[in-house]
TrEMBL record:
InterPro entries: HARBI1_dom, Transposase_HTH_dom. It comes from the Bacteria. Coiled coil: none annotated. Keywords: Metal-binding. Residues 17-68 form the Transposase Helix-turn-helix domain. Its cofactor is a divalent metal cation. Signal peptide: none annotated. This is Helix-turn-helix of DDE superfamily endonuclease. Residues 87-237 form the DDE Tnp4 domain.
């Protein structure tokens, strides 16, 4: 991150800043990893709140710009001779805003941003989508981002949970004991239960991707603008990729 900041300063001709690149990188990491507020960072680094805000926005924008696109992530996985990826979604909790209804997730019972993600068979996070209002369900979000179509073009199948049932051909989801809530439940046979168990074992590795993402406490409850949540998530993805 220090090198990215230093290169950016050189490119824009910035001759002097209150903090050197390595201190700016430390400030941004403290904000992302620990969720420290701007006021707390300003007091700790001896600078103004506006300067902290400018440093955080500048650095996270630079990092998010380096995050891989969906096409790049899928083809990179295909070139490693894997034949499937794991698709999952989560809702990053946010504070309530004026546009209340679109951002309220009835499933999670709080306001948030719906983010889709892909992980490889080992649980490594590959790609994070643009954020959508929290009321958007996972199936609609996957269709909005054209995830299934691009995975099919790369020759990859997708493993997903029951929330993606019948989202598109090539997406493997668990067998259900009923098709909809208006039908009576039926007992699944041993073969179907075994298939669901095998799928759950493979998908459990993909849960590690979101676990790593949410270890960055800034995403525990994002108090920034809803438009910044995607930038923060993609910045963290870039840091995880560079770390790996």
């Amino acid at each position: 991150m220090t090198q990215i900041i230093r290169t950016h300063r050189r490119a824009i001709g910035s001759r002097w800043r209150r903090l050197p690149p390595q201190r700016q990188a430390l400030l941004v990491l403290a904000h992302l990893r620990n969720g420290d507020t701007y006021q707390r960072l300003a007091a700790g680094f001896g600078i103004g709140v506006a300067t902290v805000c400018r440093y955080v926005h500048e650095t996270t924008d630079l990092l998010a710009h380096r995050a891989p696109s969906l096409t790049a992530a899928l083809w990179r996985l295909a070139w490693t001779f894997h034949n499937y990826a794991i698709l999952d979604g989560t809702v990053i909790r946010t504070d309530r805003i004026a546009a209340n209804k679109p951002y309220y997730s009835g499933k999670h019972r709080h306001h948030g941003i719906n983010i889709q993600a892909l992980t490889d068979p080992h649980g490594t996070l590959l790609w994070i989508s643009e954020g959508l209002p929290g009321a958007t369900n996972d199936t609609a979000a996957a269709r909005h981002h054209h995830i299934c179509e691009q995975a099919a073009q790369a020759g990859l199948r997708l493993l997903a949970d029951g929330g993606y049932d019948q989202v598109a051909p090539g997406v493997i989801t668990p067998y259900k004991n009923r098709r909809n809530r208006h039908q009576p439940t039926r007992e699944l046979g041993p073969a179907y239960k075994a298939a669901n168990t095998a799928l759950a074992r493979l998908r459990s590795r993909g849960e590690r991707g979101f676990a790593i993402l949410k270890n960055w406490r800034i995403l525990t409850r994002a108090r920034c603008s809803t438009h910044r949540v995607t930038t923060l998530a993609k910045a963290i993805l870039t840091l995880e990729h560079d770390h790996n």
